[in-house]
Amino acid sequence: MDKCEDNFSRNGLIKNTNYHCKILTNQYAEQVIDVFTRAFCHDEPMTNYLHMDETKYREFAREVTNKAIEDELSIVALDEDKVIALALVEDLADPGSIPDFDPKFNDILALLDTLGGDFFKEKNFPSKHVAHLFITAVDENYRSEKLSTLVNFSVMDIAAQKGFDFMYCEFTNFLNEKGTVPHLKNKKRLIGSQSYSNFSVNGNKPFEHLNSGANAYLWEIRRQLLLRYKKNGVWHKEAL
Question: pTM of this prediction?
């Protein structure tokens, strides 16, 4: 891997060598589903606010995890053979389907759509160009060990090795954003921002009493490349 793809060195970070990362495979599927479900139902602001049913949420976590295993773009952080953190990534040009498991989840999807809506509207990206980091989760017993930084920057390297040029993420949890964005020396752009309390869909405010908000960023994971997309049948290139 050439130096432009080493996102730890490029951003002046030192890896937490107490734990090691591996590509997500079926071997770790059940553990990932467990960590994913607990982290989001207990600690992700929107999911927790809506009191999402953990049993139902596991259906979503299972489908997303299975797709991530197929794509081979995601990683787990391990304490020996125990999954303690994960970062799930998909190709923005080939997103997975969302199971219809709970109507309340539609409010979350609607908010996420507003974050990138204006920027991504009518843009069609080629495959293996923009990687979508859409899930980061850390086991509750391993918080404050900079594991979101470890898995998020590690998965940047995986995507870069596979030919991706950029990464996109909607940060809905302040701690995940704090563990990533301030460390990024890579060229980046704030795509969208939304406070939870002000968000409205179909005349309702589903997160009316929820503090803070979500931010979406697009950043490069390889150097000096242009963003490429087709719009209205014409290919465009632009600097980030």
Answer: 0.93
